[in-house]
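Appendix B. Raw example, untouched.
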Amino acid sequence: MKTLNDVKKMAETLMAKQFTFNTYFGVYTLSGEQLGYTFKFDSAKRRFGCCNYGRKTIGLSMPLCSENLDKIDTKITDTMLHELAHAFSVHVYGIIEGRGHGYNWQHIAKQIGCDGKRCFDSDKVNLPKSKYTLLCESCGKSTPKHKVIRNTYACGKCCNEHNNGKFSDKFRLKLVTNY
């Protein structure tokens, strides 16, 4: 059985690995460590990874990694490569042309082994259980929430179908605490 330590080892191995890729400026051979980046886990529940150019950190979501330990060799590795591609892209092209998920980033991402896609597919990964759920008592639709909400929300589907798209207290979403 794989653990978060296995995820950390994989991430640190990829951070140390030298990747070679072509750009229109020439051929580069770089590693995350060589650029000064470090690895860390964070507590995010809605994104798998992040690359912070200012702090020079690459982070993976501990809750999402914990729920998907069976996907270390696929989704988690791809996410780590995705974030490394951000670091390389900003290094080569600068903050203006290198950040984001545009052509420059995609070109590098695919060359280092990433699938070059922007977001993870929530149907293909196990999501951490949310602390709260917004529930429509009219149609039964539920929406997971990780933080308590302060505003009042109504079911968009029900308001569109039965109230011409206008807010109605009749379709107010109920906040349910899961744990």
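End of appendix B.
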